[in-house]
Amino acid sequence: MRRIGIWSGWTQELRCRTIRSGRPWALKGAEAPAAEARADGPQQEVEDMKGWQEEAAGGVKGWQEAGAGGVAGSQKETAGGVKGSQQAGAGKGDGAPSYGGRNRRRLVLRRPASWWGQLWREALPSGNGLIGAAVHGAIGSETVLLTHAELWTGGTKQELPEVSGTLAEIRRLMDEGAYREANGLLEGRLREAGYEPVRETPLPLADLKVVRTAQAGFRRYRRELDLETGEVSVRWEEGAAAYERKLFVSRSDDLIVYELGSRGGCVDVALLLQPHEKGTASRPDMPSYVSESLEITAADGFLRYAARNDDGRDFGAVLRAVPAGGRLGEDQGRLSVTGADKVLILVKVFAGGDRSQEWTRLEAELREVAWTYSELLDRHTALHGPLMRSADVHLGGAGEEASCTYTDELLQEAYEGGLSPALAELMWAYGRYLFISGTRPGGLPFGLYGLWCGDYKAVWSHFMANENVQMMYWHAAAGGLSELILPMLDYYESRLEIFRDNARKLYGCRGIFIPAGTTPGMAEPFQTVPVIMHWTGAAGWLARHFYEYYRFTGDLEFLRRRALPFMKEAALFYEDFLVEGEDGRLVSYPSVSPENTPGNYISEEGVFGAMAHAMPTAVNALLDFAILKELLTDLLEAVELTGEGEPEAVRRWSVLLERIPAYEVNGDGAVREWLHPDFTDRYRHRHISHIYPVFPAYEVSRDSDPALFEAFAEAVRRRQVVGIGDQTAWSWAHLSNIYARMEEGEPALECLAMLARSCLQDNLYTVHNDWRHMGVSLSYGRAPVQMDANLGWVSAVQEMLLLAAPGRVKLLPALPASWAQGSVRDLRFETGRVSFAWNLQRGQLEGEVTAGRQTNLLLTLPPGFRLTAVEAEGSDWAAGCTGPSFPVRLSAGRTLKFTAEAERGRMVPDEGM
């Protein structure tokens, strides 16, 4: 090992107390991890309840005291900088310490779900990637929405007609300048052929109801979600009694586990399973085939529920109640528990099959469950916890007083204009939690509602791949969650034959045409409007995720067997679809820039103008060529890596790459969204996909082409300023990612602040748009839940802290002043992971790079910092290099540690600290 300088221990001031029991956890006085706190089984649960009651008596005072010092208490404890977190974090980060107070990884709310008419929107979610449960938090008549990822309904699928001859007619009209006439031609031909499919939507499985009669008014109500365990709890006091309900969905046992308990009182409840109530008192839009086929029975401590889907298959649930003390009874399709100290409720669900067979199977499985609540939770967290701890981010300012604040207080602070580091960090963790809980290997991709859709015929509930699907996966590889990318790749790869059929019948092309919108049962286009039918970029954009999976895992077999074939299919479509212009350059038409219309083809009139797709059919959308350039570049690299490419195909791809037209700049100094003189730019729009070369791709940067980079930056600025009222939650998240990639931290943070101010609910679900007409997003009555922004937030935070481009890593590229100190553990770059901690007020930075496989990269420090010390284990790092950029060459498993300081006179200002 080569030692240069002294390995500083100053970052101990950013770390948390480590209890020498073999497992580090939180600050003194904070809650121990589940596996330790519940190790004694049922007796320990009694102690847990007792401790909770004592805690409730003191309100949140104890919590606030535990976190008032934030990292102040931790600043005196764990020496060795990032070393302490790395010891446990070498794999999935097991045992990683928790910074700040006990609420750093919790949502803590003081009210139940309150969105009148659609309470499910503000429920607290738990899930295992297949089964979802969302807790409203009511005391008298509690509702838990039950869902299943594979339960969809209402679709009408049709054979896609052969209409490929329409393409020549569309192009003839466009060549004549008759763009409006060309715009609707394909849609019209499909309709003339009788093609009018109806998309399917998620179907809520059931509601679990817990009904009781209050004995007194409630006090000290709390509703919490523990992100580290996936446990939702509801607590309150009533008279002299304290009550607690806690629920999680087991990743290990495919089981909903729910326990009701009381101290100083007893559990007297009725338990029901019934069709989902969309609102507070009615079931609008519930399909008639659900109500007409409904069957509910109660016997022997079990509730059985089933209804029939429109495909003739049943779906339903079986519930088992196990009271401790008291009496269990059945009456009129419900179970009743009276006089119990607590009751354990176990639920299994099914989404297809014969009800009688499924009931028999699930009842037998439930009878076999002999574990306590705590034991079941430990089994679950053994799988859930490592995913949550695969990476960690801690954001701090001068003080950590917000680390124990109620979630609603963090939201109020953001609403008034101040996005705290605590909320930014909580949203990062929450987005990861939703993703981890909402998908799993072998299942479906993460959807716009996650697992927790409570609407019948939910709007925009399909998988939308003209940005939304991609945004939900931007964070995953860098966040150490590559295994959860596979469900999305599986989903699209398994439908290749249908996508080939789409390409042939719609455009007469080989290769694949992936419609922007698909559902599990519908890979043919069901949105036949021009803005969807004329956008051909989905396959190419998704191909980058196939190649990114390879880049971050190094799985050559995946590259050969899966990524390369998919990329070839995407390229083959372009070979047939694109034509050569008079100048020898490629021409793409019809061409759409999602979901925009050129400025000279639309009237801007309020929200309908902002949302309208008046005439999206154009020529040479920049996005088409940005996707194509990245696809072909990656494809040629993949062929070189694998040696599996026909010389003639390589030649064709190389020629295509050379013929891509250059990007252009308009009179405003902004890059043109359409590379054709007939179309003017339109800045008042939420989509900003034409910035693709800057983000998510790495084609254009300030270093590679300053002038072109500035043109892209000007397009971004005009989108934000001119179109501020035309944004959405996901577009604010997209803008934040772009600003982060542009290394502009304050605008990146302000975009997240705008999102929080306009499109964030009490349970931290993001919605598509504001519904209150506050002027910083689209505003109209419907504001559907859309979790793409939740996950876009995760990516934005990671981009602000780490640029992980091919062959280069930059630390803190877009750090806002308010994030004056903090730490990162195990964010990934292509061939390894990086951990570091910083304190700008002191001008100190310390970290380490660990190679997962052979690593050769350029590591860049933040502006104004110079390298002061290095421990280079098994590295040929060059002595004497002080930065700001220096090469890192490591073999697999080796680590390089570094310390850096801000140069004198170049300290970061103290604003916001």
From TrEMBL:
<dbReference type="Pfam" id="PF14498">
    <property type="entry name" value="Glyco_hyd_65N_2"/>
</dbReference>
<feature type="region of interest" description="Disordered">
    <location>
        <begin position="68"/>
        <end position="101"/>
    </location>
</feature>
<feature type="domain" description="Glycosyl hydrolase family 95 catalytic">
    <location>
        <begin position="373"/>
        <end position="801"/>
    </location>
</feature>
<dbReference type="InterPro" id="IPR008928">
    <property type="entry name" value="6-hairpin_glycosidase_sf"/>
</dbReference>
<protein>
    <submittedName>
        <fullName>Alpha-L-fucosidase</fullName>
    </submittedName>
</protein>
<dbReference type="Pfam" id="PF22124">
    <property type="entry name" value="Glyco_hydro_95_cat"/>
</dbReference>
<dbReference type="InterPro" id="IPR027414">
    <property type="entry name" value="GH95_N_dom"/>
</dbReference>
<dbReference type="InterPro" id="IPR054363">
    <property type="entry name" value="GH95_cat"/>
</dbReference>
<dbReference type="GO" id="GO:0004560">
    <property type="term" value="F:alpha-L-fucosidase activity"/>
</dbReference>
<dbReference type="GO" id="GO:0005975">
    <property type="term" value="P:carbohydrate metabolic process"/>
</dbReference>
<dbReference type="InterPro" id="IPR012341">
    <property type="entry name" value="6hp_glycosidase-like_sf"/>
</dbReference>
<feature type="domain" description="Glycosyl hydrolase family 95 N-terminal">
    <location>
        <begin position="109"/>
        <end position="349"/>
    </location>
</feature>
